[in-house]
Amino acid sequence: MKQKAPFLDALLGLVAGIGLIALYAPLLATAALSFFQIVRVRGTLGFAPFSLDPYVALLANGEILAALSTSLVVATVSSLLALVLALMFAFYFVSARRGLGIAMQTMVFLPFLLPPIITGLSLLIAFREIDLGRGLVTIIIAHVVFIVPVVYRTVLVRLQLLGSSLTEASLDLGASRVQTLRYVILPQMRPALISGVLLAFAISFDETLITLFVAGSQTTLPIRLWAMMRVGFVPEINALATLIFLCTAAITFAIGLMQRAGERV
Amino acid sequence: MQPLLHLNNVSKRYGAVRVLDGIDITVADNEFLTILGPSGSGKTTILRIIGGFEGIDGGSLMFEGRDLSAVPINRRPFNTVFQDYALFHHMTVAENVGYGLKVRGRPKAEIAARVAEVLDTVGLGTLGGRYPAQMSGGQRQRVALARAIICEPRLILLDEPLSALDVELRAQMQRFLKSLQRRLGIAFVFITHDQEEAIALSDRIIVVNRGRIEQEGAPEELYRRPRTPFTASFLGDNNLIPGTLAAIDGRLCTVDTAAGRLDATVDGPAPAPGSAVLVAVRPEHVRLDADPAAPHGMSAEVADVRFLGANVMIELFNPALPGAVIKVRRLADGSVAGLRPGASVRLGWAADDAALLQVAP
């Protein structure tokens, strides 16, 4: 039975509470400030009444909308590409000899664990060496490189959980490898595939540092936000940050749902 | 007659471990063959080799005279019922059962008709729309069977399919399996570690131990005439009494033991007089009222009398056989009412009920 320690429990609760507040207070403040702007009225600071003006301004801002669409394209394309690569890696890993598998495991993960500045710089040098002009393509390649490990991890865990008996059953019933993949393996992995892609999408959507190196004249949303803050603070920044936070929160929630669906299967 | 399937001198290793060592098995058409052995005996490996899930390191695997070793899993005319059933949980029962036909590109109407037919055969007529997760263990078992028989294979491989079921359901599924096999006329190769199940179901049993075949034959033959100490003790209860072969006359053997001179009979080639042997006699074949004046037989003292319902198990010992418990089973009727621990009895048996076993040197 669990030992009761009321004091310790209370202390842990308090620390956790403070931690949560510290994490979420800035986010909440940003969100609040996007609806209630700070204004100076006759020398004193105060809050303006509720207004959606920053959001309206955001929608009217062509540059921001262009950056948003670039970000969506990059995140969609790179997370789908990452899914295909991650699936191939995972299938290889479960069938490869142990030594090779471990070597590959490390190699796939390294770009994710390396400092982004190193990854960004290496990619920049590589693109220059092969004479690949910076733009949408280079951003997508860079994003694929560091989101593959995330998708790979999600997919591999599910694949290992599936084990070999369903594959064997399918082959035993006369299915080819391709049919087995299509009718048995992929449907069984669906929750993992979706949550892997969502996670990759969220990371790609928010990535800034590596993108800065390889973007060229292209602008993604985080880079746009960064640029806006350098020239001066406008209320749209709060609105944009709030929107990005909400999108990410929604994706995280969806991933949670998918993982629970995956556990049920 | 050519056998349906022939494993000829098959060997298999995993790294340095030899799991199968020169296995010879033939399966006849329509036969219910059980491969019986303890866990780790290699019985599942035999099944996986037939199914194509494992390759072989030596010997050959022939199906109606054709070499199967290069034929991949999905082209072998066998289907498997897996121990964990391996049902596809994202598919309905009907989709699971129809899978084998679907991947062969059969028309939808034909699949639907066959699925309905096969579900009827296994007694799941109306449950085609359910998902496996909504079914009981026994029902899933039937889905797995239906899925395996729909493509009309020549042989069905069953890997301990009843081990996950409770006792009552098990007995019911045993009867069902046996009648299904008779109705379909398909050969069944059934893997189990449960000797009672093997005896109840099989036309023929192959006993495997440590990657080798110990003995094979009809259930009754194996039970009555075991030839190795392993078969004698793995199939049912047996008393194994060590001794040396004193004399042999045709099948009839006389064995000298520390507790006296005993009778037994031998099948096949007999060992030379003077060899170390075991006398195997079933608890139900030992008489407690043998003639004390008879030249062969042994005396024993009752150690314990255990009431088991329909039966009584009497445990006896003889001081000349230290550590050995001799078990005698009797119907729990008046004939054993007077037996109490400490009573002295004279044991005997018909020579035909005692098998002479050779002890490996």
Keywords:
heterodimer; A: 265 residues; mainly alpha; two-stranded antiparallel sheet; B: 361 residues; alpha+beta; 6-stranded mixed β-sheet; 5-stranded antiparallel β-sheet; 8 helices; 19 strands; elongated
Question: What is the helical fraction of chain B, as a range of percent?
Answer: 10-25%
Gyration radius over CA of chain A? 23 Å
Quick check: average pLDDT of chain B?
Answer: 91
Distance between the termini of chain A: 31 Å
Low-confidence stretches of chain A: none
* Total DSSP helices of chain B: 8
Separation of the first and last Cα atoms of chain B = 37 Å
Largest sheet of chain B: 6 strands, mixed
* Count of separate DSSP helical elements of chain A: 11
H/E series of chain A: HEEHHHHHHHHHH
Explain this structure to me?
By secondary structure, chain A is mainly α. Chain A contains eleven helices and two strands; from the N terminus they run H-E-E-H-H-H-H-H-H-H-H-H-H. In chain A, helix 3 packs antiparallel against helix 4 and helix 3 packs across helix 10. With 361 residues, chain B is α+β, with helices and mostly antiparallel strands. Chain B has eight helices and 19 strands. In chain B, strands 6-7-8-3-9-10 form a six-stranded mixed sheet, with helices on both faces. Chain B has a five-stranded antiparallel sheet with strand order 13-12-11-14-19. A four-stranded antiparallel sheet of chain B has the order 2-1-4-5, with helices on one face. In chain B, helix 2 crosses helix 3 and helix 2 runs parallel beside helix 4. The model of chain B has no long low-confidence stretch (mean pLDDT 91). The interface between A and B is medium-sized, with 18 and 25 residues.
